[in-house]
């Protein structure tokens, strides 16, 4: 694989953010960084890494250090202390609907002593568990930057004002930090926040909002950013992959679970009257050979289950689904596949739904 990548004129590695979830997540992300180094981050015009984020600005949040165990600039951060968390702060997050391990999240939030939420809508997690709810900014109210899947930084400017006494989210976070004992003078503007961020993220260092400008700037294309990233990521390391699964037997209803996000499965779709007709319902997509082997056709009602959990859906036969795989939707209001997924490879049993 290394030989193929280094010998090619143009290489684009496309990967999904959920690859970093679960126990295998840190190792998977490290392997992706190795690939980025192998490609020289920008080995040739058009080469590089292209992430499919789970949420808007997922890459930017990770590069800024807003994920567990990772600090600014994808540097290692101290692991959290062992034991259950006593409090949670949900920033634009609905774990019961959006994240793997739905049952575990429900138990964790229910057992917490305090839950704060920063959200636009009364989502399931908020309605069931939040003690304090802050109104979140809509996209058109935000100011700052976002990072595109290819590493392009782009400026965000507010298009509409904040209603009433609603403040920018970063201002609320800084105020909470001050009351919890955070020391130092807080940055007074969004531009000052980015200036501090560019100092602590090695491959952003030296970047200014003026450099980003109106068209944005792809940081891997900057020579100084690429050099800083290579230093931060360290040496290459490769591991041996697991053996692939064996061939499927006729009538074998156990398939690999392939959960995927649904474009219209969101609180926004359900809250906007003009969009409700687009709300996603659960489907179970199968390869034509698997559908024929199981005696199923498009439109059939089926149930996909694992470890005592099951979701109902409608079969959709598609040639694009790999053989031996059941593709199901994440984030649906009913029969959400997050009930089945926990961030690790999972095998599900697909059977006709019982009346």
What does this structure look like?
The protein is of the alpha/beta class and 355 residues long. It folds into 2 domains: 2-233, 3-Layer(aba) Sandwich (Rossmann fold), CATH 3.40.50; 254-352, Barwin-like endoglucanases (Beta Barrel). Helix content is 27%, strand content 21%. It has 12 helices and 14 strands. The chain has helices at 2-7, 25-38, 58-63, 95-98, 102-111, 124-129, 169-179, 190-200, 209-212, 223-233, 267-271, 288-294; strands at residues 12-16, 48-52, 87-91, 114-119, 132-135, 144-147, 152-156, 217-218, 254-261, 283-286, 301-306, 309-317, 325-330, 347-352. Strands 9-13-10-12-11-14 form a 6-stranded mixed barrel. Helix 2 (25-38) links the parallel strand 1 (12-16) and strand 2 (48-52). The chain is globular. The model has no long low-confidence stretch (mean pLDDT 83).
Which structural class best describes the helix and strand composition?
alpha/beta
Compute the CA-based radius of gyration. Answer: 22 Å
Looking at the structure, the CATH topology of the largest domain is Rossmann fold
Q: How many helices in DSSP terms?
A: 12
How many separate structural domains? 2
Element order, helices and strands?
Answer: HEHEHEHHEHEEEHHHEHEHEHEEEE
What is the first-to-last residue Cα distance? 49 Å
Under the CATH scheme, which architecture of the largest domain would be assigned? 3-Layer(aba) Sandwich
> Major sheet: order of its strands?
9-13-10-12-11-14
- According to DSSP, the number of beta strands is 14
**Assembly form of the protein:** single chain
Tell the overall outline.
Answer: globular
Per CATH, the class of the largest domain reads: Alpha Beta
Instruction: Note the beta-strand portion.
Output: 15-25%
In which range does the helix fraction lie?
25-40%
Q: Give unreliable regions as ranges.
A: none
Mean pLDDT: 83
